[in-house]
């Protein structure tokens, strides 16, 4: 009998709780119907400066239209989030309103890991290989690869690489820089990385006059082991400064070309 009463009381409490929540939700909806948006607050999840608070305000004013003065329950939050995702340097955004009439927008910017410079063309890539254009007044402190980039990227382009081959090349470049940055031997000694017209990558190394040809961004660990072998064994035996180029792009080979040939 006592168990039955306990079950009945529990059921009544559950029903009362549900009714209370329904009433609370109805009251919140009624408040939203009466409250209008009177302010926009923009926040960021990072310290990058590809977009500013003013950029977001102007962007929403242009693309979304009027939100100040709109009823809170009429503000299209999902549309605002979709518009934010279309912004080139924005990875995503969240939008919500509060009972005090404030529209909150929280922005996550794309974090660049590499910059590519091909003449006047320039673009960034993030860790997943997505492309986005540079900002007019902000340059991120990331490694820059210069030279003949082996695919076309139109000015202002954002999104995935134009082909699967281009995407693999970008991921290979990201993998190479990850290897360099994680290596005690190399993280502070690679001066430049340049892409030649034939597609080969050429490195210059701090304190050395040779150019190191590594070909495509693949088998990176093996290629750097061959560079290390050249610097540690071959160069000391023949004397520094003898060779102009050191080619390690072929498996198990180190091809050295003298400066006068």
Q: Keyphrases for this structure?
A:
261 residues; alpha/beta; Ubiquitin-like (UB roll); Rossmann fold; 2 domains; nine-stranded mixed beta sheet; three-stranded mixed beta sheet; elongated
Q: Provide the CATH topology of the largest domain.
A: Rossmann fold
Number of domains: 2
Largest beta-sheet characterization: 9 strands, mixed
Proportion in helices: 25-40%
Widest sheet: strand ordering = 6-5-4-7-8-9-10-11-12
Total count of strands: 12
Mean pLDDT: 88
- Separation, N- and C-terminal Cα atoms: 103 Å
* Unreliable stretches covering 5 or more consecutive residues: none
**Under the CATH scheme, which class of the largest domain?**
Alpha Beta
The radius of gyration is: 29 Å
The succession of helices and strands, N to C, reads HEHHEEEEEEHEEEHEE
Query: Which overall shape is indicated by the principal axes computed on the Cα atoms?
Result: elongated
The CATH level-2 architecture of the largest domain is identified as: 3-Layer(aba) Sandwich
Task: Walk me through this protein's architecture.
This protein is of the alpha/beta class and 261 residues long. It folds into two domains: 39-109, Roll (Ubiquitin-like (UB roll)); 112-258, Rossmann fold (3-Layer(aba) Sandwich). Helices cover 35% and strands 25% of the residues. The chain has helices spanning 2-34, 53-63, 77-86, 164-182, 220-238; strands at residues 39-44, 90-97, 102-109, 112-118, 121-126, 131-132, 144-147, 190-195, 201-205, 211-215, 243-247, 255-258. It has a nine-stranded mixed beta sheet with strand order 6-5-4-7-8-9-10-11-12, covered by helices on one side. The mean pLDDT is 88.
């Amino acid at each position: 009998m006592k168990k039955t009463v306990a079950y009945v009381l529990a059921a009544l409490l559950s029903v009362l709780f549900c009714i209370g929540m329904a009433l609370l939700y109805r009251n919140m909806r009624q408040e939203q119907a009466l409250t209008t948006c009177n302010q926009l607050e923009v926040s960021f999840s990072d310290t990058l400066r590809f977009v500013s608070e003013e950029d977001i305000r102007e962007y929403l004013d242009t693309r979304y239209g009027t939100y100040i003065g709109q009823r809170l329950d009429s503000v299209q939050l999902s549309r605002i989030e979709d518009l934010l995702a279309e912004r080139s340097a924005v990875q995503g955004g969240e939008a919500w309103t509060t009972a005090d009439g404030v529209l909150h927008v929280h922005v996550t910017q794309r974090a660049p890991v590499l910059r590519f410079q091909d003449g006047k063309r320039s673009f960034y890539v993030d860790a997943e290989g997505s492309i986005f254009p540079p900002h007019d007044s902000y340059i991120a402190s990331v490694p820059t690869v210069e030279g003949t980039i082996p695919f076309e990227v139109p000015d202002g382009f954002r999104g995935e690489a134009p082909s699967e081959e281009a995407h693999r090349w970008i991921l290979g470049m990201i993998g190479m820089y990850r290897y360099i940055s994680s290596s005690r031997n190399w993280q502070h000694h690679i001066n430049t990385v340049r892409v030649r017209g034939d597609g080969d990558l050429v490195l210059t190394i701090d304190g050395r006059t040779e150019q190191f040809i590594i070909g495509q961004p693949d088998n990176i660990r093996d290629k750097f082991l061959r560079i290390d072998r050249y610097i540690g064994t071959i160069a000391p035996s023949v004397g520094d400064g003898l060779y102009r180029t050191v080619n390690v792009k072929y498996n198990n080979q180190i091809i050295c070309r003298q400066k006068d040939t």
